[in-house]
Design a protein that fits this description.
Number of helices: 30
Largest sheet: 4 strands, mixed
Strand content: under 5%
Number of strands: 8
Helix content: 55-70%
Shape: elongated
Radius of gyration: 52 Å
Length: 754
Amino acid sequence: MNNGNQKRTRSERVATLALPPGALGRMLGYLQSRHVLVRLALCALAAVFLWAITSAWAPPFPFREGDIPPRDVTARVQFEQVDALRTQQEREEARQFALVVYRQDPAPLEQLRAELMLAINRIVQAEQLSDLEPGVWEAFQGPQPQGEPEVPADTRAVWFETFRTAMAGDGAEKTMKVVAEVLAPYEQRGLLERLPDDHTGNLDKIFVETPKNRSGYPTEVAVSAVMISNAESAIKAALSQNFDSPEVAQRVHAYLQPRLPSTLKLDRGATRIEQEKAAMAVPEQTTVYAKGQMLAPAGEPLAGDALQLLWLEYQNVVADRSLLAKAARSLAALGMYVALYTLCGFYIYFREPRMIAKLSRLFAMLSMVVLSVAVCMLVARDAWRAELVPLLLFAMTVSIAYHHELALLLSAAVTLIITMALGHDLGDAVILMAANVGAVLSVGRIRTRLKLLFVGMCAGAVALLTTIGVGVLEGGQMYPSLVQDSLRFGLWGVIAGALMTCLLPFIERMFGVQTDLSLRELGDPAHPLLQELVRRAPGTYNHSITVASLAESAAEAIGARGLLVRVGAYFHDIGKMLKPGYFIENQSRGDNRHESLVPAMSTLVIIAHVKDGADLARKSHLPEPIIDFIQQHHGTTLVEYFYRRANEQKELDPDGSEVDESSFRYPGPKPQTKEAGVLMLADAVESASRVLVEPTPSRIENLVHELTQKRLTDGQFDECGMTLQEVHVIRESLIKSLTAVYHGRVKYPDQQTA
């Protein structure tokens, strides 16, 4: 028995019934797609960049120079502020009391001891006082006191003999040893007759650097210990203690006392270093502000010290925030980004799908959002407050690359991000958004180089007036800062327009769009491709010029971009220049190369001009919208003439192969824009109208109606969004234009029909 033919039970049939997935199931299935995950990853990466750029983990600093707080601003935490003036005063005082550095040179004292030894040797070698050179013994006697009688010669001779006897033998050596011990401390710490005039520092102590300790730390010495006036009595007392003979001590002191040299020299460089060390050792002086203490009164513009104080308080508040608070704010910011992505994403998905269809377009848009926010954060400082400039550039770029509605939505989203990141209030957000709206609505078609400058002026005027209005509503009167802010916003609008004029070529290349300004340059008849078309295929060139005129009028009639269609028409048949003789507009009478070819081969030659034209356009770096016209102006239409010839040959040869209609159709794609659809109709009716024997208005109308109907029924306009009403308007425009081209003329008596 064959079980395969057994009928299934009712339960089995119910079990095999698969219902379509619900909304949640469709969403989950959609999210499992690889290309969707890649796009979501890009969005997530952009959100992370925005989180980092805007420091979303910390609240923004809400005050700016010139702001007028509506209420007293008090400290939220206790903090300290560095008192720069008091710190400077304390450090200057430390410099004044810093120890001055002197360099000690013991050589003069060593030289003094050598001179003393030489004088003693001369005395020892002399037999009597008269044998000495003049002045040698007088140096040991000291100056003659005023008012006392001069010492007799015999008394001087006795003193000389006594001193000479004491120095005889090893007396001189012992004397010099005592002198060396007495002068040793001064050779170490130095001697100074008086403080120099440029001694600016401590007057009680100094630092002394000797050759022994110069590479290390200097020695701290009391000023009194190095003064020669104090050293004289100290040396006298030390000599008296170390000599057995008071007379010898007196004679040695008499020699040394007037000859004690200054051995210390001020080291200005080292002194400055010590003064700076002393100044830097003084800690910064601070003023403590308690929690709840008033920082800025209400109704007074913020500037200078008040703004700096508020910034310091803000930094302390941010530093005291816990990790949990930072994480909560970060999640809130990321949640806002997700909400904005969702809102904008749904709009783009339903109204502008080409942005997410191509990954490069989505990447460019996300990059521009991140870059705009980064530049806004950079230029929003009090020195410039120019966040309006990148916002206007962003809004104008989106408006040029896509359309006004998307520009308004995305600029509003970016404005919201900037407002939250900078701590702006509602008034600031209104000003920024009003300027964006003014710029977007005034962009329109860019036909001249001054248009974008005019757009910037409009945006600046809107920002200026909105700033004044918001300021008066919030403050109730015109403050000088309000006038200054309004003028600044107006200036930023003009600057944004000027910058946009310079950036326009890069934006066109990045997003693959063509403004009217660039289209006018591209449609110049002197373009190398058009010049080559004139030389190789003059008939095709004339056909293109006529099609451009017809298509431009028809496109303008339905509100499409007529200039874009006209320039596209100039280039739509450039592929024919490679084989011009195979196209009827370039053939002379009786010269038809297709007579020697089978229909299939003729069709391949005719169809090839689309691919050849696209290749030529890419080689010449024509923009993508123009290449789209070349590829789409025939869509997937049928090459009817050769298709009918192939069928006729099949009827004459029953054994021949079947005629495949798809082999006689253009590869497409079908027109993707209304402009491409207009060009398709204009190209078809212009070519067909050339074969009319008598192109009367009625015949032209019938021809246009027939060709339009064929392409409608063939589904050529299914992908360009063109409505039946627009098709009707295009048809009427083409009829009117062709009737004007083939208008009747008065026949003069001497004229004959050609």
